[in-house]
Amino acid sequence: MSFKPLRRLALPLAILPLLAALPAQGQEAKRRWDQMCQIRKDKLDLILPEVMRENRIDMWIVASREGHDDPNAALLGGGYVGDIGYYVFADRTGSGRIERTAMGIGGAGFDQCPIYDLKVSPAELRKFVEARDPKRIGINVASEIGTADGLSHSLHAKLVETLGPVLVGRLVPAEKLVSDFRARHSVNEIAAFTKAGEYSRTILERALSNEVIVPGHTTTGDVAWWMMEQLHKEGLGSSFGLPSIYILGPGERGPVSGDHVIQPGDLITVDWGVNYLFYYTDMKRMAYVLKPGENAAPAGVQRAYDKAQDIRRMILDVIRPGVTAGDALAAVNKRVAETPGLVLGRYDDPSKDMKVSDVVIGSHSVGDWGHGSGPSIADFNPLRMTYQLRPTNFLSIELFLYTQVPEWGPRKIKIPLEDNGVVTDRGFEWAYPPNSRILLVK
Prior knowledge:
Layout: H1 16-21, H2 27-54, E1 59-65, E2 80-90, E3 99-106, H3 108-111, E4 118-120, H4 125-132, E5 137-139, H5 153-163, H6 165-168, E6 171-173, H7 175-183, H8 187-207, H9 220-234, E7 237-238, E8 244-249, E9 267-272, E10 274-276, E11 279-280, E12 283-289, H10 299-318, H11 325-337, E13 342-344, E14 357-361, H12 382-385, E15 394-404, E16 412-424, E17 427-430, E18 439-441
Parallel strand pairs: 1-5, 3-4, 5-6, 12-18, 13-14
Antiparallel strand pairs: 1-2, 2-3, 7-10, 8-9, 9-12, 10-11, 14-15, 15-16, 16-17
Helix pairs in contact: 2-7, 10-11
GO molecular function: aminopeptidase activity
Keywords: Aminopeptidase, Hydrolase, Protease, Signal
Protein name: Xaa-Pro aminopeptidase
């Protein structure tokens, strides 16, 4: 038998490299889906058993309904809920894995990441719980942490009606459990958070450059919307909506992300965060727009920035696993108060004494949200300050310094610093290269 050679399609040579560069259909979407599935598996295999047992929760019931997902639903597998659905986790043995049951939850995507042992009807909830006889049943009602407060009034009423008085007497808030579950992380989660950080800083540092800014023409709003367009192109979300972009000096602070035309001599700051997979960042960068003949920011601005870097090192020195976030805040506040020329201040309300610089520390949890659910070295999270710092917690190291810049007259300007990293056995490690300089725009 003989074969005739196949004829080659006569494609122009210039097209061939373009075809080679085309991604496979759905390649990035599938890659991200696989990573999310692995994160879910790690979360339930590695994190959930330890946090349920530490918090003495024998069963955790997470309720959702169509149009009202619990804040934890996506991390627990997502899926479609037609009316009411429950993710139920039972510690049946006290060792090994936690039994996982999905009630009234399904869909193609849910089924392609098989992480549940059982799939049953929500109508079986009471019989199911009675058979396992848990002593403490955690539900998502909370006093402070929003991600632990997903149980609506009507869903709570439905749960009470379904379980009956004996089991209802065993219901307890799962606020600390949810905080621990969301704030401790596997290696895959740390990798995803690091990638979110790289997206965040790369887009932000490009935005604060001549790639985007033409002094005398570009507005702060133009910069903000350019950044939002990059999120759209990369298939990313935003931690806080439109980036906050404003002018720190030399004049009074400009409107946020508005119509201020960026001029030579402006000191710009940006506060924003990126959402990638399940993970959110919260970071800041500063840039100075050079005047003709300048090659650096004014000396007073640089001194202020260097002083803020010194304070950041004070924060890093007190972060250790095993201490409460509140004790870490007290320790750094003590160091600030004992440093000549520094005083503890109030956010955006500096003292009138130009001889001292005001410091505000707000180093909060991050990662599962822009302002996260875990331990926070920040007095605006009072409950979370009582939680211990643990290895793999994500933190945003945030501070504000209010200090005088002599070149800009008798007032204090704000120098903000913020970057993200991970608590480790060694203390704290950055998840990506942090802010180490004032960026320059020509």
